[in-house]
Every structure is written in structure tokens, then in C-alpha cells.
């Protein structure tokens, strides 16, 4: 059994000798000479600020967002919209978008029967709290 395990490891790890082009941009063989991908700096400019919230609502707002909203915020390419970079007015008036909002014709579901006003307040706390958490401290 030990011999099979070593043989299996050799077969499994043999791919590490291939070029990066065979594995994609994030794979890099041991001892490979290919340059690392360029680092993408996190976008801080335009980060949401000014939405009033209670920090104690952030954990529950996170859970509600993940359960109800995450899939609704995915565009046709599978990307989640950067809610931390939308306007303060949009997040402050989030219920106007969540309940019978203007983006229903673009695929956003109507959450009228699924969420309550207090759920939206907690989602606002999650969005603004997350923006505040990643913003560099002054």
C-alpha cells in the first residue's frame, strides 16, 4: 500500500513539470521561472461612507445578505456588484431597490415577500460596515 501511495504521488505531482500556460495564470510549477501575475491593488477611492448603521447589526446583516441577496447581485458574467462602491444614497435608500425596485426588469428579484424592513436595515449595516472595515484607518 505504501508503494502505491508513492507511485500515486509521483503521478499526481508529475504535472508540476509542465509550463504555466498549461495550468493557467495562477498555477506555477515548483522551480518555475515564469513571472508572477501583476498585483491588483484594492480600490479604496470611492468607497461607500456616510450610511448610518448600528455595528451590532453587521453579523446578522451578513447572514441575511449571503442567504438572500448574494445571488441577486450577480451580473450575467457571474460577478457580484461592488456594493461598497455604490452611492451613499443608493444604500441609504436600499429598501426602494429591494422592494419592487427599478432593477426588476434587469433580473433583480423583488424581495417584498422574503425580507422585512428590519432585514434591509441589517443589510445596510453589513454593506457600510464592510466598507468601513476595509477602509484604511486615519
Q: What descriptors fit this protein?
A:
mainly alpha; Cytochrome Bc1 Complex, Chain D, domain 2; 40% helix
List the helices and strands and how they pair.
Blueprint: H1 2-13, H2 20-23, H3 58-69, H4 88-92, H5 95-98, H6 117-134
Helix pairs in contact: 3-6
Summarize this entry quickly.
The protein has 6 helices and no strands. It has helices at about 1-15, 20-25, 60-70, 90, 95-100, 115-135. The relative contact order is 0.16.
Account of the protein in words:
This protein folds into two domains: 1-40, no CATH class; 55-134, Cytochrome Bc1 Complex, Chain D, domain 2 (Orthogonal Bundle). Helix content is 40%, strand content 0%. It has six helices and no strands. Helix 3 (58-69) packs across helix 6. Mean pLDDT is 76; it is low at 8-23.
Spans with pLDDT under 50 lasting ≥5 residues? 8-23
**Outline, from the CA principal axes?**
globular
Quote the beta fraction.
under 5%
- The CATH homologous superfamily of the largest domain is named Cytochrome c-like domain
CATH topology grouping of the largest domain: Cytochrome Bc1 Complex, Chain D, domain 2
Under CATH at level 1, the class of the largest domain stands as: Mainly Alpha
Domain module tally: 2
As a percent range, the share of helical residues equals: 25-40%
**CATH architectural name of the largest domain:** Orthogonal Bundle
Average pLDDT, all residues? 76
Number of strands: 0
Total of DSSP H or I helical runs spanning 4+ residues: 6
